[in-house]
Amino acid sequence: MTSETNWPFIKYGDNTEIVRTKGAYLETPKGSQILDAAGGAIVANIGHGRARVAKAVAKATLNCTFVVPPWITPQRQELVERLQSDWLPEELSRIHLTCGGSEAVETAMKIALQYQCAKGEEQRCNIIGRTLSYHGTTLATTAVGGHTLRKAGLAHALEVYPRVQTPYPLRCPLGPHHPDATQYYLDEFSECIDRLGANTVAAYLAEPIIGSSGGAIVPPDGYWQGIREICDNHGILLLLDEVMTGFGRTGKNFGYQHWPITPDILVSGKGLAGGYAPIAGVFSSDHIANAIGDANLNVMFHTYAAHPAACAAAVEVLDILKEENLVDRARDMGKLLNTRLNDAFSNHPHIAEVRGKGLLQAIEIVQNRDSLEPFPADRNIANRVVKEAMRRKVFFYGGGNGDVRDIVCMGPPFIITEKEIDTMVSVLLDSVDAVCGK
Ligand SMILES: Cc1ncc(COP(=O)(O)O)c(C=O)c1O
């Protein structure tokens, strides 16, 4: 392969070469088996290499190679039916499909703006984002997100979005896991709305549980109920980005279901087709879609959106998740992983916290566990830990946004076994010790 010069566009890391993927493993050209503790990019929820999905993709390609996205095909129809019957809450029955998460989040932002415009509220053009977040790689999703590293070379030209702090219990300004943390973050949200003027705000965009930018950060109790209430009081749409957390990753169909709320617009991607095809979805209500349609506005599609082969892959992946009870398994194996991580790291001098829900878990590495002071950025700790683990044949996902750093994320396929979880944890411990010392 010409990887040294031509791929990727900018050389990144060690140019690892993988020739085959199967179950929870990645195989190198020399036949080495690497345990995929990151599920690729926290995507491969059902595991790699299922023949049944490949067959469905081949059949769809043969029967319906390409049909413009708004038309109906059997694969699209089947996916829509499956989503409605098995996955989406009744309130979010309208479906828009895209090729990936960034497009889906950006479409959701557009839908929020178009909805407010359709209601005659064009002045509602603010979308509030958060300090620590990732929503994608388009200009708008980069701008609204809070991923400092991924804004490098762009920040000067990005539109400025209003922003509130991401609830981060460990590093709450009131103190770690402070009992008033929820109120603190809710007050800040209300103040932001007041400052902007409530009638200028179209939507609040957030991940219910932070993905790799912060490393599986779960907000404090009551946060989401409080946010829902504030949004409702001000006519602000709640737009939840579940590109990473959706379709079972956190042990429920969607991450927001850990709390008694429903978003106005839900976005999900990665796990929808589990890495077998590029597809993501934007899910919303009849009420929002009808308002946009009644105002003679439309939501434009991408050429490859709702591609028949991708829809066919998604149907099989969703069926496998149900037939094999994999969402419950993500919950149970996630608990086990969290317990084992805590057993290994709860007294470790360089681990500030083990956190997460279901099979989205992370550790935060610090120089000083008591003061939570991080290692200097140029020590490049998380990347070195990931590299050490790769030498030991386990692939973890480095996280952080540049300001928050030295996060190692875990998002293995839901088929992961107890023995593989033990391997993950012992390799992670050895790798942290090798880089940071004990
Ligand atoms: C929460 C979240 N939103 C959006 C995206 C962007 O999705 P994609 O890379 O499919 O464009 C990601 C990708 O990691 C993500 O984790």
Q: What topology does this entry show?
A:
Elements: E1 20-22, E2 25-27, E3 33-36, H1 39-42, H2 51-63, H3 74-87, E4 94-98, H4 101-118, E5 126-130, H5 139-144, E6 163-164, H6 181-196, E7 201-206, H7 223-234, E8 237-242, E9 265-268, E10 280-284, H8 286-294, H9 308-323, H10 326-345, E11 351-357, E12 360-365, H11 381-391, E13 394-395, E14 397-399, E15 407-410, H12 418-436
Parallel strand pairs: 3-13, 5-6, 5-7, 7-8, 8-9
Antiparallel strand pairs: 1-2, 2-3, 4-10, 9-10, 11-12, 12-15, 14-15
Helix pairs in contact: 2-9, 3-9, 4-8, 6-7, 10-12, 11-12
Bound molecules: pyridoxal-5'-phosphate.
Instruction: Give the CATH superfamily of the largest domain.
Output: Type I PLP-dependent aspartate aminotransferase-like (Major domain)
* Large-scale geometry: globular
* Mean pLDDT score: 97
Structure summary, number of beta strands: 15
What is the helix content? 25-40%
The largest sheet has its strands arranged as: 4-10-9-8-7-5-6
In sequence order, what are the helices and strands, one letter per element? Answer: EEEHHHEHEHEHEHEEEHHHEEHEEEH
Q: What is the name of the CATH topology of the largest domain? A: Aspartate Aminotransferase, domain 2
Q: Uncertain spans, ≥5 residues at pLDDT below 50?
A: none
Ligands: pyridoxal-5'-phosphate
Query: What count of helical segments does DSSP give?
Result: 12
